[in-house]
TrEMBL record:
Gene3D superfamilies: Helix-hairpin-Helix base-excision DNA repair enzymes (C-terminal), Hypothetical protein, domain 2. Binds 1 [4Fe-4S] cluster. GO terms for molecular function: 4 iron, 4 sulfur cluster binding; class I DNA-(apurinic or apyrimidinic site) endonuclease activity; DNA binding; DNA N-glycosylase activity; metal ion binding. It catalyses: 2'-deoxyribonucleotide-(2'-deoxyribose 5'-phosphate)-2'-deoxyribonucleotide-DNA = a 3'-end 2'-deoxyribonucleotide-(2,3-dehydro-2,3-deoxyribose 5'-phosphate)-DNA + a 5'-end 5'-phospho-2'-deoxyribonucleoside-DNA + H(+). SUPFAM superfamilies: DNA-glycosylase. Its cofactor is [4Fe-4S] cluster. It comes from Acetobacter vaccinii. Keywords: 4Fe-4S, DNA damage, DNA repair, DNA-binding, Endonuclease, Glycosidase, Hydrolase, Iron, Iron-sulfur, Lyase, Metal-binding, Nuclease. [4Fe-4S] cluster binds at C270, C277, C280, C286. Belongs to the Nth/MutY family. This is Endonuclease III. Residues 121-268 form the HhH-GPD domain.
Amino acid sequence: MPTKPRQKKAVPPVAPARPVSRRRPAAQATGAEALPAPDAVQPDGSLPPRPRRKPAEPKKTAPSARTSKPRTDDGPSAVAPRNMKPAEVVQFLRDLASAWPDAKTELHYTGTFSLLVAVVLSAQATDASVNKVTPGLFAAAPTPQAMVALGEDGVGALIRTIGLWRAKAHNVVELSRQLLALHGGQVPDTREALEQLAGVGRKTANVVLSVAFGQPTVPVDTHVFRLANRSGLGRGSSVVAVEKALEQRIPQDMKCESHHWMILQGRYVCKARKPECWRCVARDVCLFPAKTSPPRPTARRA
Ligand code: SF4
């Protein structure tokens, strides 16, 4: 019997092989769930728990000058390598006292209420700029009652040349209202009560307690903070830390006046950008590691 010629089976065209991405497994690339490795399946058939991702660490931001650790390198930001010893503290303050024998606040005021208002107005403004507006303000409103009657618009019109005048006008009227409602129109003599008043923070309360009531507080402003850290009078990385260090270290009978000595020394000699150590009366006892020399005389052209 003749044999039938075998028919060739049609071979389906072979699809070209898909290139497999090297970046991701094929299952992930197609969106399908990747199978677990056989030995990863638990005896009860369940999948092992997925490893948890570590939460991202918060970004590190540059610390502010006020809260950063004091620097011990050279330059105006350097601080004393240690705190002064008690005898050095006394000598340093005596030197400052000799430089500023009549030191007192440079703000103009006529009584406790006007002192409180002037200190509130002096936040982030110079004493000189505040002294330009307070005569007109205190003439128009010498008492809390008169300040409330003058109102925010009236106060604002008189203090417009100082920074943040809108907020300060609000605070001055509001604190006057609070004095009338809570303290019979009188300025209280405790830190807690003062800090409850509008616009009154720790430093303002300390100034009023020291200047108006003679209490041994040590208000720390930017000048005192800088001077205390540079000299070693009382080092600290925050205003409150410096305040506490100074309160502990300054003898009781020097506390009230030392505040004025330190402000004036910081403002006019131990300046922020470059301390003028060569003419500082306390340079021998000061522990600042980068004391400055007098500027060289500039050569004159012939
Ligand atoms: S010597 Fe005087 S001016 Fe210089 S850092 Fe000390 S306190 Fe400031």
